Amino acid sequence: MEKVTVAVETPYDVLIDHDLLKHAAAHLEDLIQGKKVLIVTDENVASFGYLGNLQEAIVGITSGVDTYVLPAGEAQKSAENYVALQGHLATLNYSRSDVIIALGGGVIGDLVGFTAATYLRGIDYIQIPTTLLSAIDSSVGGKTAIDLPQGKNLVGAFYQPRRVLCDLDTFQTLGETIFEDGCAELIKYGMILDGDLLGQLMDRESPLNALSGDLGAIVKRCVEIKRDVVLEDEHDLGLRQMLNFGHTIGHAVEQASHYKVSHGRGVATGMILTQIMAEKEGLTELFLTERFNKLLNQYHLLNQLNLVKDYDFEDLTAAMTNDKKRRGGEITEIFPDSFGKCRLETMPFDQYAGYLAAIIADLKADKLPIVLDGDEVA
Amino acid sequence: MEKVTVAVETPYDVLIDHDLLKHAAAHLEDLIQGKKVLIVTDENVASFGYLGNLQEAIVGITSGVDTYVLPAGEAQKSAENYVALQGHLATLNYSRSDVIIALGGGVIGDLVGFTAATYLRGIDYIQIPTTLLSAIDSSVGGKTAIDLPQGKNLVGAFYQPRRVLCDLDTFQTLGETIFEDGCAELIKYGMILDGDLLGQLMDRESPLNALSGDLGAIVKRCVEIKRDVVLEDEHDLGLRQMLNFGHTIGHAVEQASHYKVSHGRGVATGMILTQIMAEKEGLTELFLTERFNKLLNQYHLLNQLNLVKDYDFEDLTAAMTNDKKRRGGEITEIFPDSFGKCRLETMPFDQYAGYLAAIIADLKADKLPIVLDGDEVA
């Protein structure tokens, strides 16, 4: 088993291994013994049997397990669901010493994390990410949030889980598309902070998949990178913004697509467009578009670029206006600096919008210096 | 001007004086200059002209002032209003560097504080309490919350304001009943932590009122007491529970009355019933009911006790079941220990409910060892 300890105010462990769900009682005993536990998940995850497996594994050591199953999808990260979940906890008389488990991807993790952060001003919660993406991204770092109709993640809190179980077996069952979304974030970690990881991903014989023997080690490396960034900047004031590489454009694309484009593919789109922008406008001396393009294509992460052609430019920038990274007429973007290293650069939003307009115009005219490859993504 | 500095992670000042609203620009310049500011208040406060005065005082140094006016009353501390206020901020494109001002009593302070704590995962907010109660209680300590249909303050966060302005002039205008509610909390501070303050309140020639020359000094003393308790126990794990003296029964009475009984009068009811319980059950050696009764009567804080006679006992204890102070079948109550000193005592909830049943039975049979005096409170 791989283990990463996150030394925040109340330190917690991220456990990475196969078969963790089956042995959840042993891994969670100190946190849930004799307590009421609410497992929140979605219909997809429940249909794979993970909810039943987890419930069966832990019910004996708790004072009772309740379950709460939502439909799948980003739309569930709503204020309505947040309020309903709070009401459910209150109706079941959950006290400050009881526990919530988030079993699912980033949507479940964010919604449940924010609920736990604010129910009775904070109760314990445990993350069990069932996707590669949520394992390496949203389950570490304590960012919890819900969406508003006006934009993603507009309401939330910084709140750390008490433990994270990354059961690698669960990453195998949600399908290749979902796994590839996680690879977008893997690649991001390499780009911003780890040239070795980036090189390893670019040079491997065959693309990483859920059965690859080195998956546990790679997940551990990403969790460590994220942990180190978060510890240095828990409240997202500096270094942590680096993790947003590709996210400014990525979030905008997700929102403009009404979330038909997934988070991972949104970020992949954002990363390649940011790279092209940086090369085109002289914002980097690292000419990486071609290799980067090839790497992203291996995981079929760029095919939704054709969708972006149909979006109004105003829709894209309107989404950015509400983005938290925009402060008082300026925007801070993350640009590639050298291999495995990015930098923050703040510029007037209008200047940035001009650069973006040029890239989008090239995209619409099929003049971007990239090739698309792989299946269409619905 | 009186000033109390609260040295939390980001220290802030509580300013106490007359005429603060009029000079708000000078007192808030460092926090709001060049920023967008949303003032949230209620119709009562707005009708006294405070909203207009504040807006006029600060608009010149901000980049724009927006206002948001709610109806008055506890019912406004709802999840619906919380979500609507978040949506309003997003629609107005408030960024992380903008500011919200809570202008009003505890309801506005709690709702706005929780909104500020969670909009974009936290933006600055300023408290301008317009009642004695909110000045000495909810505006210091960082407890923010909203209510659910299942109970009061069930959802919230610990989040500190950047500054608190207590304009004593505003305490004069909201009526004697509201001022007296604040006196219930003054008396509570004396009971739990300051025998001098308690003696001073018991021995004064005429009751404190909004025009009393020593009001500023008394407010300062209460803010200091609360500050000291909060600093020692920011996350409400021990000492801070002391501040809940009278609140277990108080909250239950408020809820059972559907909030016809105000917070201050609920707490006064809770304090006297807890004192009588302590004497009756041998939980204290401090026999203070008579003097305590007299003091509370001076501020007409006990007349709603007649209302409590009509409540079902089950309604009262049902409300307590959801109270955050109840943990795993036990309840921690605060009992008077000596003059100006209370202690925490944890006991099985059933035992506590038995004591409470005895007191309520006495109340219904008009056998409580107290006298009621003053006007009926609707």
From TrEMBL, chains A, B:
Residues 68-178 form the 3-dehydroquinate synthase N-terminal domain. It catalyses: 7-phospho-2-dehydro-3-deoxy-D-arabino-heptonate = 3-dehydroquinate + phosphate. GO terms for molecular function: 3-dehydroquinate synthase activity; metal ion binding; nucleotide binding. Its EC number is 4.2.3.4. Keywords: Amino-acid biosynthesis, Aromatic amino acid biosynthesis, Cobalt, Cytoplasm, Lyase, Metal-binding, NAD, Nucleotide-binding, Zinc. It is an enzyme of class 4 (lyase). Pfam families: DHQ_synthase, DHQS_C. One of its GO terms (cellular component) is cytoplasm. It is found in: Cytoplasm. InterPro entries: Dehydroquinate_synthase, DHQ_synth_AroB, DHQ_synth_fam, DHQS/DOIS_N, DHQS_C. Its cofactor is Co(2+); Zn(2+); NAD(+). Pathway: Metabolic intermediate biosynthesis; chorismate biosynthesis; chorismate from D-erythrose 4-phosphate and phosphoenolpyruvate: step 2/7. One of its GO terms (biological process) is amino acid biosynthetic process. Residues 182-325 form the 3-dehydroquinate synthase C-terminal domain. Belongs to the sugar phosphate cyclases superfamily. Dehydroquinate synthase family. PANTHER family: 3-DEHYDROQUINATE SYNTHASE (PTHR43622), 3-DEHYDROQUINATE SYNTHASE, CHLOROPLASTIC (PTHR43622:SF7). NCBIfam families: aroB. This is 3-dehydroquinate synthase. The lineage of its organism: Bacteria, Bacillati, Bacillota, Bacilli, Lactobacillales.
